[in-house]
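Q: How would the structure tokens look for this protein?
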Amino acid sequence: MPTTARTRVRSRNGVLSAIEVSSDASAQQPVTNENTGGLEEGMGEEVGEEEDEEEPEEEEDDVLEDDEGEPEVFPPPGLKEISSLASWTVSTAKPGSGVAALRSPDPAHFWQSDGPQPHLLSIHFFKLVSIVSVEVLLDFEVDESYTPTKIQFLAGMGVHDIQEFAEMTFEQPNGWHEVDFSNVGPIEHDDDEDEDSDDVIDWSKRPVLRAFLLQVRILENHQNGKDTHLRGVRVFARDEGQQPRRVHTKPVSRPTASNSSGLALNAEPNTIKMATWMMDPDLR
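A: Here is the predicted structure in token form.
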């Protein structure tokens, strides 16, 4: 059995330190308190250097996350959402997956039907609205057989005179999809527009759908599924506040010195912009 003896040795600076001496050849070398403190300090410096080396990697990750993409601008420039100006009703719904889930801003919530096809979503506006864009949110990766593959869109003044204005088919949709308005009216395009300005839409040249009632009719689902999932619907109208009208002014003749005392024959045009409180009320 190896034996261990403890002795005290006085160092050069006069400090006593304890040394353990073992008779076993494989025992560790004597370690003093001074050396232990030095080792601890050295280890602390090494750990600190490793942490300092890891910090730039975390900063790089943050930069990559910021550069992944800019957040979506909502509502789009020149538009305002008018979904809150209507009452929403559905033909059937599972408990907890009705209109409240469909109107939720969280895309994880959805409307799930509970009945035979077709599945109807009716949006009743309390006044006549001018619709220029409608979007629906679908997610094939999550919903699978609940995903709609054929949807009809109808509009009118009431239930008895609604007419179909668009029908869309999907294979594996994912994300927001804009409804086709080509049957509502012609879509004008500017010949002077540059190729770089394709993303900027002039909504004043898009067809307008005037209606009290907008209805979404789901006819078919993926893999002949019975019930359906619809994760969101957005209805937009023009935002006149963001699209000021151009004022064409004519040259004005100023009164000369000879007739400065008289009134000017041609008055200056009124270019004062109408304030928001002077416009029609916009309930949200």
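The first helix runs from residue 33 to 67.

Residues 100 and 111 are 8 Å apart (CA to CA).

Upvote if useful.
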